[in-house]
TrEMBL record:
GO terms for biological process: translation. This is Small ribosomal subunit protein uS17. It comes from the Bacteria. Pfam families: Ribosomal_S17 (PF00366). InterPro entries: NA-bd_OB-fold, Ribosomal_uS17, Ribosomal_uS17_bact/chlr. It comes from Vulgatibacter incomptus. The keyword Oxidoreductase does not apply. The lineage of its organism: Bacteria, Pseudomonadati, Myxococcota, Myxococcia, Myxococcales. Part of the 30S ribosomal subunit.
Length: 86
C-alpha cells in the first residue's frame, strides 16, 4: 500500500506539563475576505515527544503520524531553535 508524504508544521511549544507530550501552537496568516487585511490565526496540536526534550518556547517541526491517543496525531520530528534559558 502506497502512503503519501506526511504533513508537517512548524510551531512553538506552549506547554510541556504532560509526560511525553507537548502542545505546539502553529500560526498562519490569512487574508480577511471583506477588509483585505492579514489576520493571524492559530491551531494547537498535541505532539508526541519521546525523549521529553522540548521546553516551552522551543521552535519545533512536527509531522503527522498514526493516532497515539484521543487527541495526539502528531510527533516532534526535530527542534529547530531552542528557547533561551531565562
Amino acid at each position: 500500500m502506497e502512503r503519501g508524504r506526511p504533513k508537517s508544521r512548524i510551531g512553538v511549544v506552549t506547554s510541556n506539563k504532560m509526560q511525553k507530550t507537548v502542545v505546539v501552537r502553529v500560526d498562519h496568516r490569512v487574508m480577511h475576505p471583506r477588509y483585505g487585511k492579514y489576520v493571524t490565526r492559530h491551531v494547537k496540536y498535541k505532539a508526541h515527544d519521546e525523549l521529553n526534550g522540548c521546553q516551552i518556547g522551543d521552535r519545533v517541526r512536527i509531522v503527522e503520524t498514526r493516532p497515539m491517543s484521543k487527541d495526539k496525531r502528531w510527533r516532534v520530528a526535530e527542534t529547530l531553535v531552542k528557547a533561551p534559558n531565562v
